[in-house]
Amino acid sequence: MERFKVLVTDTLAKVGIDVLSQAADVSVCPGISHDELKRIIGDYDALIVRSTTKVTRDVIEAARKLKVIGRAGVGIDNIDVEAATERGIYVINSPDAVTIAAAEHTMALLLALARRVVKAHSAMKTAMESSGTVERKQFMGVQLAGKTIGIIGIGRIGSYVARLSRAFGMRVIGYDPFVTPESALQKGVEWVELERLLREADIISLHVPLTDETYHMIDASKFNLMKDGVMLINTSRGAVIDEAALYEALKKGKVSGAAVDVVEAEPPWKSKLLELDNVIVTPHLGASTFEAQEIAARDIAEQVLMVLRGEMPRSAVNMPQLPPEVREQLKPFMQLAERIGRFQSQICRGGIKLIQLIYAGQLASYDTTPLTNAFLKGFLEVRLSQSVNYLNASVIARSRGIRWTDERSTEDVGYSNLITACVTTTQEQWTISGSLIRDVGMRIVRINQYHVDVIPEGHALIFEQYDKPGIVGRVGTLLGSHQINIASMQLGRESIGGHSIMVMLVDNPVPGELVEQMKTFPNIIDVRSIYFGPVLSESK
Asked: Which of 158, 208, 415, 500 could be 435's S-S partner, Cβ–Cβ 3.0 to 4.6 Å?
């Protein structure tokens, strides 16, 4: 039997090479150039990388035989997952391998910061070289016991940091929009809203992916909410913090000290934070332990061989497409379910307690699992940086503690098909219904108790309001003054002058400051900006 060919282009622990060598011929080429990778990749069945090698579309298109790309670690920023998916290539990673290493590095940074270890060590070296003395008073630290640590992001790493923090006698509070208070409590974390966390925490530690929503989530306004003298730890991604705002907060003493394993520009390493004495910076060492590297290497090697043998890997970032006949039958309904999921994800506030999905009309006779996965895909991909697809969406949702139910209803709902999603959070409940209407396309037909007729595509503003004259005029004037065109508008109301929902489709995204300004208009209760997704010809 012909052996597989595997190419490894970044450093991989020996145990991984040994596992691969049992069934494959392994070529190890660390530091390979991009052009050389393109030239030789066509001969290989599998490619294994870490964070250095850039697996771009042109590399993937040159990979004639490639079946799987393995990332020995977590982040997949260096891999074009979309291009791989288009060509039916698995992209797999090792998300559990670095949990302990990253959490321990977080605690190492915190302890070094609290006890001023780096500066004390530097002073000792200077004193020994000059036969001088060290004034120990200047290195007076603080103890962790009794402090409140606020953990932003209560996933695998954040949960482990919570566990270690409790061992130090700290009170642990946390915020994560995907985690309910009950789920957080099971992890030993008191769930609080982000604003309360910022106000109460003596120490703040970030463990979130970098997404549009988390980019600069800690900015100048958030620093203003924090306690004076707060300590800040970041081992997630540099850009989740506005580095310029952090620099100013450190200079002014609002933040007494920061320890970061990541900066906004890496590599090359460029950061004004390195100019300050109350900062510790490490070069992205969160996963850099011998144990983590060995675990990741073994795990990714085993998964690569699973794929090459035709088995399902444990941790696929993407998955193969559905069988053609099933895909064609369900494709339009999956698109609708995904749009409803995106809508719900953006409109709901608070931790997710329960998602209830109901399929009615002709959909009651389908296996609705693909539709549920499509909804979850849309719901999750709005907030996550990792790739979410139709077949891994439920796994990701379950790993984040999201609960959902789905049922099929034979009741007459007035439509030939209807997908209804009711999402209950710690703050509110929203019900969205959508239908695929013949010769018309996808439509959102109900928002809570209000009947509407909305094309779920492009950008939209959702208004909760009292149905009074003048609202559309004020909103239209404001949008027009910023060159934002209104594409269409739908109003759902129960009575004249009463509470209503207005959906306004617009041709461009609406800046946050305009949304906030609209909230101040008379008779407007709330405004939310959402993006359904790109225009689809089927819904025109």
From this structure: 415
Asked whether residue 110 falls in the same domain as residue 245, the answer is yes
Regarding whether 354 and 493 lie in a shared domain, the answer is yes
**Residue pLDDT, tens place only, 295-306:** 999 999 999 999
Tell me which residue range forms the domain holding 87: 4-97+291-308
**Domain CATH number, residue 142:** 3.40.50.720
Active-site residue, from 156, 284, 298, 339: 284
Note whether 47 and 60 are within 8 A (CB): no
The reply to whether the predicted model has a pTM over 0.90 is no
Same domain, 378 and 416: yes
User: Residue type for 224, please?
Assistant: N
Residues 6+ positions from 315 with CB-CB distance below 8 Å: 92, 93, 94, 95, 96, 299, 303
Residue 40, CB-side half-sphere exposure with 13 Å CA sphere: 15
Query: Does 266 participate in catalysis according to the annotation?
Result: yes
Q: Per residue in 244-271, pLDDT tens? A: 999 999 999 999 999 999 998 776 667 8
What is the number of other CB atoms lying within 10 angstroms of the CB of residue 242?
Answer: 20
Residues 356 and 420 in one domain: yes
Q: Higher model confidence: residue 75 or residue 420?
A: 420
Q: Kindly name the residue from 50, 105, 207, 237 that is annotated as catalytic.
A: 237
Count of Cβ atoms closer than 10 Å to residue 51 Cβ: 17
Is 538 in contact with 332 (CB distance < 8 Å)?
Answer: yes
Question: Does the annotation count 339 as an active-site position?
Answer: no
Indicate whether 78 and 154 sit together in one domain: no
